[in-house]
ferric-chelate reductase (NADH) (Arabidopsis suecica), 723 residues
Amino acid sequence: MVARGWVVVARGWLVVARWNRSFSSLIRKYSLKREMNKKVIKNVIKLLTMVILMGTVVIWIMMPTSTYKKIWLKSMRAKLGKSIYFGKPGVNLLVYMFPMILLAFLGSIYLHLKKQTTVNQFNSGVERKKRDKFGALKRPMLVKGLGIVTVTEVMFLTMFMSLLLWSLANYFYYTFVTITPQTIPIDGDNLWQARLDSIAVRLGLTGNICLGFLFYPVSRGSSLLAAVGLTSESSIRYHIWLGNLVMTLFTSHGLCYCIYWISTNQVSQMLEWDRTGISHLAGEITLVAGLVMWATTYPAIRRRFFEVFFYTHYLYMVFMLFFVFHVGISYALISFPGFYIFIIDRFLRFLQSRNNVKLVSARVLPCETVELNFSKSPMLMYSPTSILFVNIPSISKLQWHPFTIISSSKLEPKKLSVMIKSQGKWSTKLNHMLASTDQIDHLAVSVEGPYGPASTDYLRHQSLVMVSGGSGITPFISIIRDLLYVSSTSACKIPKITLICAFKTSSDLSMLNLILPISTEISSYVDIQIKAFVTREKVSTCNMNIIKTLCFKPHSSDQPISPILGPNSWLWLATILSSSFMIFIIIIAIISRYHIYPIDQSSKKYTSAYTSLIYLLAISISVVATSTVAMLCNKKSYYNKKDQNIDVLSPLMIESSLGQLLPEFTNIHYGERPNLNKLLVGLKGSSVGVLVCGPRKMREEVAKICSFGSAENLQFESISFSW
């Protein structure tokens, strides 16, 4: 009986084992099928994106031509411009605004699917070949003048400048062909005055092209940037270039009109505010606001008086409001898609910044550097080199400053850390506040972010060389920690890491304390070598292990840092983009049909400023409503009191970390600067990733070594947070 019982049990286990194998096989098949479906959807999104982009480019190219104005635009206005629901603005709403909102929507869906993908692309030889094939396009081509500019950036910059020159050429050609001595009335303006009037208009039209792209680079959470591998930090210089172009063209536009009005004795036109046409006074207010912002962007002013630069940039609201009043909402919609996406991003940041976050501890290093440790929700994931905007009301209620995150969301799921070096008034006050007392039990802090690349591809390299100067080491700390996690949890081959860091004094070496989390064994996971250079001292003059630790007692209302839109933030962003735009369209359609259209049909035309104001209010209401609802829907999900508990680091553990790290992995060179040419040229390996973060001269030196036409195996990437 016992033997028969064991036989039954054995047979049962065999059935269970077979069922488990069958179930596992079904799961694998289902997962593969699911991944294939996602791949198909992503390819469809890419195809749609290319079609929309090509159509948009064609529209921008054709816009300054007579063909567009006399044939295309005339045909579209005949079909759409007479609509009782949208009227004349409906054409630009469909042609210019809708495609870009659709692109942002598709980008969000694509990033959501990309985030959900479980297939490890770095292990794919095909994927690596594809990345290496286009690696040459990321190599530096220009090092000075505009900064470090890659081959790809030169290509796009050339295309954009060609578009501007094409537009100006077409506009000026039209001016000189149509305005001749024969076409000017005898009692009208002189020939040069008539042409100056026309040229002034054309300069404004060209400036509007630049304005159409101005706000994309500063939309920190934009899907358009993330989808093409950009971040707001890496693309901030595009905003600077575009801003300079906008103000150059708009200033020329304003000066030309001032000369025209003075020469024709029409100075009173400067104060005119037309009910249904162009408002000159609104344009002048726009120009003055722009000039004030432009003046404070001068590098000497921006760096020495950052607060002045920061506060005056809030004039962008005045600039855009009166720009819409100046040209009317119909024409403003051409340049409005980027501003619409920026408004959504700005309001989401506002919602996130309303809450105080849970600051659990701080470490004060002897080099006037502070590490702040926050509690975070485990569902908040971010890539290495991400940044966090920090506001401390006790120092300044209005100032927000970006700092690089040094922790890894994978290695440290419940902690987020930033490093702050004393380099300005705000950071110096913070360091003095924490270093001078042990009596601080609580520090109120608000944050925005994190913001960073959607993904990183450091694993594609055989080796990584990271070159830093001073506090430029911070983004590399997060990269090392992230690679440490990948090495300890998967079979991926981790590239050999070489960290070349230059410091002014030996006290700065204490920043090496922050490379690894406490009690982390590194030797069994990654191959790392640290070459530290102290440039202004020949011997060590500082005890690097003297680190002050502060532990805070957060208030019950303080929350862990969490994603404002939950773990599926890209999907929720797509929802906000689509739903807010649809609500905006519905509001405008109703108001136009039952309020604006009846008045326009009467002898008294509807005031242009009122129409513009209605559109702006409709956009604001739709964005605020949808963003608030999305935030509230996710609030219960991401705010979990269980996430508020993280371990506080003890001083003993912190002080012992440096002693474990330096002897085994670090070589310190006193009284010399790193010979970057000697350290980089001749590195072995088919793909060597060279990352640099530090002073401008250091970045330019490394870029020159890795520039286009130099060592083929060096893949350059500059990480700069200098605005």
Remarks:
- Confidence is low (pLDDT under 50) at residues 5-10, 12-17, 118-127, 640-661.
- The longest strand covers residues 496-503.
- The radius of gyration is 29 Å.
